[in-house]
Input
Amino acid sequence: MAVETTVAGVAVMIAVMSLVTLLTRVGGPLLMSYVKISPRVESFINAMASSVLIALLTPMAVTGDWGARLALLTTAVLTLTLHRPLPAIAGGIAAASAVRMLS
Output
């Protein structure tokens, strides 16, 4: 499917993406309101969050440039040492920026 990159085409794309985002944001909690949260369901939800994160980061670690790899490594090390995600993310961004600026 191809959408023309005219003003109307871009507006349609934005509207469709907004609708999909709204449906996923509302649909998940709505569906989960019918599920009893047992320890088994809770462990599934916790594992699913980790697996999504790994699925997003693994290709970047394997096929990414050195800036991406250093950003991942820096973020991981800072997260494990500081136990705070925001400074770790900032450190990863700074590491990627430094590598890309120097190369």
